[in-house]
C-alpha cells in the first residue's frame, strides 16, 4: 500500500508506530521499500555518510536532487521525503518555494523536509500553499550546528524545552504534516507528541514519538566515524561487507575468481585466427 501524508496522519489516530529510514541511492531504496517501511528520507546526512563531510552544511540542491531522484526510482510504496539543504530555504520565502518545487518537479519526491521552528513558519505556509507537503524538524537540527556550538542535545533547559514545544505548535499551524524530533529528552518528545495532532518522528527523542527514523548506515553498522547514543545497530552489515571484500581479494589473488561459470566463450575457429 502506498504511504501518503494522509496515511501518516491516520497512523497517529490509529496509534500505529511509523517507521522511517534514510536512503540515498536506487538499490538501497528498492531493498528498503520491499520491507514495508513507511517512509524514506533522502536526508542531507548524505553529506556526512555518503560524501564524507564533517557536517551537513556543504550539501547542495544539486546533490539532494540527484540522490532524491535515484531513491524515488527505486520506491513504490514508501513516502519519499527530500531534505532541503542548508541555505535553500532560510534566506527567503521565494527561495523556499522555488527549491521545494524542484524536489517535486525534478526529483519526484512526495514531500520535503526542512529544519527550524517559528523562524521558518512563513516558508512552510508558502510551500504548503504551493501544494507541497512539508515535514518539519526540531531539536538538534544539524544545520544549526554552529549556533549550538556542536551536535548537542537540545531542550534540557526549561526555556529551551518551552521553545521547542511552541515551535512544534507553530509548525502544525503552518501546515506541516509531520515533524522530526531529533536529540531531545524522551519526556519532551512525549509532551510534544501529546500536544500536536500531526505525527512526530523521533531520532534520539525517545519511544513516545509516533514513529522513528534512523540513518541506515548507522543502524546497519556501516558508518564508523562516530555513533550517537541514540543509534542501535540492528545488523553488522559493515563486517559482512568486509568479509565479502576480503574473500574477493583472496580468490582473485589465488586465481580462483573468475571461475569457468563467470567467463564468456567464443567459437574455436575464430579463436584460432587470433593466434
Ligand atoms: O538528514 C537526515 O538524515 C535527517 C535525519 C537524521 C532525520 O535529517
Question: Overview of this structure, please?
Answer:
This protein has an 8-stranded parallel β-barrel with strand order 1-2-3-4-5-6-7-8, surrounded by 7 helices. Helices cover 42% and strands 13% of the residues. The mean pLDDT is 98. Strand 3, helix 5 (93-105) and strand 4 form a beta-alpha-beta unit. The chain has 12 helices and 8 strands. It is elongated. Helix 2 (26-33) crosses helix 4, helix 5 packs across helix 6 and helix 8 (158-174) runs parallel beside helix 9 (186-195). 3-methyl-2-oxobutanoic acid (KIV) is lined by residues 22, 41, 43-45, 83, 137, 180, 182, 203, 213, 215.
Task: Count the DSSP helices.
Answer: 12
- Spatial arrangement of strands, main beta sheet: 1-2-3-4-5-6-7-8
Using DSSP, what is the number of strands?
Answer: 8
The Cα radius of gyration reads 22 Å
Between the first and last Cα atoms, what is the distance in angstroms? 60 Å
**Which ligands accompany this protein?**
3-methyl-2-oxobutanoic acid
The residue-averaged pLDDT reads 98
* Shape, principal axes of CA atoms: elongated
Overall domain count: 2
- Residue share in β-strands: 5-15%
CATH class of the largest domain: Alpha Beta
Oligomerization: single chain
The CATH architecture category of the largest domain equals: Alpha-Beta Barrel
The CATH topology of the largest domain corresponds to: TIM Barrel
* Largest sheet composition: 8 strands, parallel, barrel
User: Any idea what the CATH superfamily of the largest domain is called?
Assistant: Phosphoenolpyruvate-binding domains
Q: SSE order, as H and E? A: HEHEHHEHEHEHHEHEEHHH
The SS-based structural class is: alpha/beta
Helix proportion: 40-55%
Catalytic activity: (6R)-5,10-methylene-5,6,7,8-tetrahydrofolate + 3-methyl-2-oxobutanoate + H2O = 2-dehydropantoate + (6S)-5,6,7,8-tetrahydrofolate
Protein name: 3-methyl-2-oxobutanoate hydroxymethyltransferase
Family: Belongs to the PanB family.
Pfam families: Pantoate_transf
Amino acid at each position: 500500500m502506498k504511504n501518503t501524508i494522509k496515511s501518516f496522519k491516520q497512523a497517529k489516530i490509529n496509534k500505529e508506530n511509523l517507521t522511517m529510514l534514510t536512503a540515498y541511492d536506487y538499490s538501497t531504496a528498492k531493498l528498503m521499500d520491499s520491507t514495508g517501511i513507511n517512509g524514506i528520507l533522502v536526508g542531507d546526512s548524505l553529506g556526512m555518510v555518503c560524501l564524507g563531510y564533517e557536517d551537513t552544511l556543504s550539501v547542495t540542491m544539486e546533490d539532494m536532487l540527484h540522490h532524491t531522484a535515484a531513491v524515488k526510482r527505486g520506491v513504490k510504496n514508501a513516502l519519499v521525503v527530500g531534505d532541503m539543504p542548508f541555505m535553500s530555504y532560510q534566506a527567503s520565502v521565494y527561495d523556499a518555494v522555488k527549491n521545494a518545487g524542484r524536489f517535486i518537479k525534478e526529483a519526484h519526491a512526495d514531500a520535503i523536509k526542512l529544519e527550524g521552528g517559528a523562524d521558518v513558519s512563513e516558508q512552510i505556509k508558502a510551500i504548503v500553499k504551493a501544494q507541497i507537503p512539508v515535514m518539519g524538524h526540531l531539536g538538534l537540527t544539524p544545520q544549526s550546528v554552529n549556533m549550538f556550538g556542536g551536535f548537542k542535545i537540545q531542550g534540557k533547559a526549561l526555556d529551551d524545552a518551552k521553545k521547542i514545544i511552541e515551535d512544534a505548535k507553530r509548525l502544525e499551524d503552518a501546515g506541516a504534516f509531520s515533524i522530526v524530533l531529533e536529540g531531545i529528552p524522551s519526556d519532551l518528545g512525549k509532551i510534544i507528541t501529546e500536544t500536536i495532532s500531526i505525527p512526530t518522528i523521533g531520532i534520539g527523542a525517545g519511544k513516545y514519538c509516533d514513529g522513528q527514523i534512523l540513518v541506515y548506515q548507522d543502524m546497519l553498522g556501516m558508518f564508523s566515524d562516530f555513533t550517537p547514543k541514540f543509534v542501535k545497530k540492528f545488523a553488522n552489515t559493515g563486517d559482512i561487507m568486509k568479509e565479502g571484500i576480503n574473500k574477493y581479494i583472496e580468490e582473485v589473488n589465488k586465481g580462483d575468481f573468475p571461475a569457468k561459470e563467470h567467463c564468456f566463450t567464443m567459437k574455436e575457429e575464430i579463436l584460432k585466427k587470433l593466434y
